[in-house]
Amino acid sequence: MQSLLSPPLKALMRSPHLRLLVPRAAPSTQCGCSCGIRSTLRPGQYSTISEVALQSGRGTVSLPSKAAERVVGRWLLVCSGTVAGAVILGGVTRLTESGLSMVDWHLVKEMKPPTSQKEWEAEFQKYQQFPEFKILNHDMTLAEFKFIWYMEYSHRMWGRLVGLAYILPAAYFWRKGWLSRNMKGRVLALCGLVCFQGLLGWYMVKSGLEEKPDSHDIPRVSQYRLAAHLGSALVLYCASLWTSLSLLLPPHKLPETRQLLRLRRFAHGTAGLVFLTALSGAFVAGLDAGLVYNSFPKMGESWIPEDLFTFSPILKNVFENPTMVQFDHRILGITSVTAITALYLLSWRIPLPRRTKMAAVTLLALAYTQV
């Protein structure tokens, strides 16, 4: 982060707006007689806005200037990268079935992992009291437990790193006066969403630790809470990235033609469709619905499976029937790729800036890579 923030800080320090707190003499004024009288400023008076800001801020620089905006923009760009890393690490944790290995949550206490054999055995004994060990991993060894425990531990510690990456620099920039009034509201919202994300993660894990006497199914977290956890992470990532780019990249002034307005609305709709597809993927993961049918484009021997509406009421199938959940995810995925392709074709029919066209090409390439 130091390498990212250093050039803008140097540019800010060389700015001509930063001047020493030295009282400046006022220009000569003429009185009624013919003598010239030079009036000087009294102690505590300063002749520029930046000097007043320095004095009133007790030594801080209250400048939502271009240099400060670049610093804040690069900080939020780094933050969005840490959120993307958390999502990826959370996916790995899910694939390795490690999410239920840590059966309690402490903000500070759990930051220290077990170090001795006695501590590891005590941690393993706690895990043995919960459904995942009793039903699924009853023959697990201590060495195998250490692997899944460290996977979940790394995900939780990365989450704490994300929180610090947001909160500490935000407090620093706020004190320095480098955040405009509008940016203060955005930064507060982002920091609040980070804290909410951490609490939601533990709320999700708790759903997989609950005893269900009437069920002998594999213990898993609630697909509803998993989708909420992923969805809030995506909102945090997109909001951070959007705010960062709005500070780092100057906006293009384009004529508001009918084609441009149509493209903008279609882009917003496509973004919402992609977000909905990602949430449906969380339901697939939460129910292990991807294991029901493993053929494509057909599901088994048919295009539309016969067991789509086995649950009652019918709406329950959309969220709890693994067959319907996988079917919906496939349809949403195909629709998303189709919409992105159409967005790409529309963008090339309109005279757009080079970076906008590059974004459309990159989006198209990532969409087909995802498929």
Description of the structure:
The radius of gyration is 28 Å and the shape is flat. It is built from 12 helices and 2 strands. A hairpin with a 5-residue loop joins strand 1 (25-30) and strand 2 (36-40). It has helices spanning 2-13, 49-56, 66-95, 117-127, 131-136, 142-176, 181-209, 223-248, 258-287, 316-320, 322-347, 354-370, and strands at 25-30, 36-40. Helix 3 runs antiparallel to helix 6 (142-176) and helix 8 runs antiparallel to helix 9. It is mostly helical. The chain starts with a helix and ends with a helix.
Blueprint of the fold:
Elements: H1 2-13, E1 25-30, E2 36-40, H2 49-56, H3 66-95, H4 117-127, H5 131-136, H6 142-176, H7 181-209, H8 223-248, H9 258-287, H10 316-320, H11 322-347, H12 354-370
Antiparallel strand pairs: 1-2
DSSP helical segment count: 12
Helix content: 55-70%
Q: For the report, how would you describe the main beta sheet?
A: 2 strands, antiparallel
Separation of the first and last Cα atoms: 34 Å
Number of strands: 2
Order of helices and strands: HEEHHHHHHHHHHH
Strand order of the largest sheet: 1-2
* Radius of gyration based on Cα positions: 28 Å
Low-confidence stretches: 8-13, 15-62
Q: Approximately what portion of the residues adopt beta-strand conformation?
A: under 5%
What's the mean pLDDT score? 84
